[in-house]
Specification:
This protein is of the alpha/beta class and 359 residues long. The protein has helices spanning 17-36, 50-65, 78-86, 134-142, 163-166, 215-230, 232-250, 279-288, 308-312, 317-320, 334-358; strands at 44-47, 69-73, 92-96, 117-120, 147-151, 170-174, 185-189, 256-258, 269-274, 324-327. The protein contains 11 helices and 10 strands. Strand 2 (69-73), helix 3 and strand 3 (92-96) form a beta-alpha-beta unit. Helix 2 runs parallel beside helix 3 (78-86). The longest helix has 25 residues, at 334-358. The radius of gyration is 21 Å and the shape is globular.
Length: 359
């Protein structure tokens, strides 16, 4: 990224030599991102991040294709849920329920879904890590003439993501989920989709997303995509080892519930609750000990409500309020997991003793 912060500072839309050098860097990054998900570079639209990519996928296709219905999974990310809320008064909507493990229940697909519908189901959940069978879901809906979008932001770089094999029309990615810079994302789209842009102006990204491209971020995204693809199997195995090591010890602690334990999950995500413990209180205690975990989606971390994902799964509200999400990365170690387990045990016992004193 450094050359594009220093010497190569031209606008990629400029036709002079320096502009063409920067344009070439964007072209390479587009190829790298496309290659990560087995798509063609011409199918890649760069955005400011995953949330914008999800918005463009849904708003752009609904308006561009004149769709009259939106169908989403019950456990979608806020950048999909809130787009549905945005359209709540203008188009028909359906929510696909999930089972107690967080998997989409296709058997409950209502017949009221019409042929001018867009179905949006995330490939891997950002809280539980549950991996949906997108190819089957897509096949189910596309044979009825529906368009299908999948938010693959959490999945990319952790499990294989193949745009062609998934048989979807639209797929979204985010740079920082694969160790690229923050503030960059991408929409991968089937060229049969007429996307109406949300941002008008200079006509960049083939008129689908105007605005001078974030060259530095896009170059970083491209390199991160290249690395993610080459190291996918190695990283997946290492993350699975860490997850198994952590969960084996975690289940030795009293009152632990691992959400979606029986479903296929990402190898880096463990979402669990502790009976009788307030998740926010536990999170703050862990943070004070230098442990960075969350109580759910970082994009909804200011909400005091229990996770909508767990509520959709039918999890008891008290357990849902105790939820803690641990996400492993390539730099984590088993020594750090040992420290986390020791700290968890100590903090759970401490919080429980305070509760008894109050009683």
């Amino acid at each position: 990224m450094m050359p594009y912060l220093q010497g190569c500072y031209a606008n990629p839309s400029s036709i002079h030599t320096q502009g063409r050098v920067v344009r070439k860097a964007l072209d390479v990054a587009r190829e790298q991102v496309a290659d990560l998900v087995n798509a063609h570079p011409s199918q890649v639209v760069f955005t400011s991040g995953g949330s914008e990519a999800n918005n463009l996928a849904i708003k752009g296709s609904i308006r561009g294709m004149g769709l009259s219905q939106l169908v989403i999974g019950a456990t979608e990310h806020p950048s999909v849920k809130d787009v549905a809320k945005y359209f709540s008064s203008s188009i028909a909507q359906q929510v696909l329920p999930v089972d107690e493990q967080g998997r989409i229940r296709l058997d409950d697909n209502q017949s009221e879904i019409n042929s001018r519908a867009l179905v949006s189901v995330m490939m891997a959940n950002n809280e539980t890590g549950v991996v949906q069978d997108i190819a089957t879901i897509s096949g189910h809906f596309r044979k009825q003439g529906f368009l299908v979008h999948t938010d693959a932001i959490q999945a990319a770089g952790k499990i294989a993501v193949d745009f062609s094999q998934l048989n979807v029309n639209l797929l979204t990615l985010s740079s920082h989920k694969i160790y690229g810079p923050k503030g960059v994302g991408a929409l991968i789209f089937d060229k049969s989709i007429d996307l109406e842009p949300m941002i008008h102006g200079g006509g960049q990204e083939k008129k689908r997303r105007s605005g001078t491209e974030n060259v530095v971020g896009i170059v970083g995204f491209g390199k991160a995509a290249e690395i993610a693809k080459t190291q996918l199997h190695k990283n997946k195995k290492e993350l699975e080892d860490l997850q198994n090591y952590f969960e084996h010890q975690l289940k030795q602690l009293p009152g632990i519930v691992i959400f979606s334990e029986k479903a296929e999950r990402l190898p880096n995500t463990t979402f669990f609750g502790v009976a009788g413990i307030d998740g926010e209180a536990l999170l703050m205690q862990l943070d004070a000990q230098g442990i960075a975990v969350t109580s759910g989606s970082a994009c909804a971390s200011t909400s005091l409500m229990p996770s909508h994902v767990l509520m959709a799964m039918g999890v008891d509200e008290q357990i849902a309020r105790s939820a803690i999400r641990v996400s492993f990365g390539s730099q984590n170690t088993k020594a750090e997991i040992d420290y986390l387990i020791q700290t968890l045990k100590m903090q759970v016992e401490m919080i429980a003793s305070f509760d008894l004193l109050e009683i």
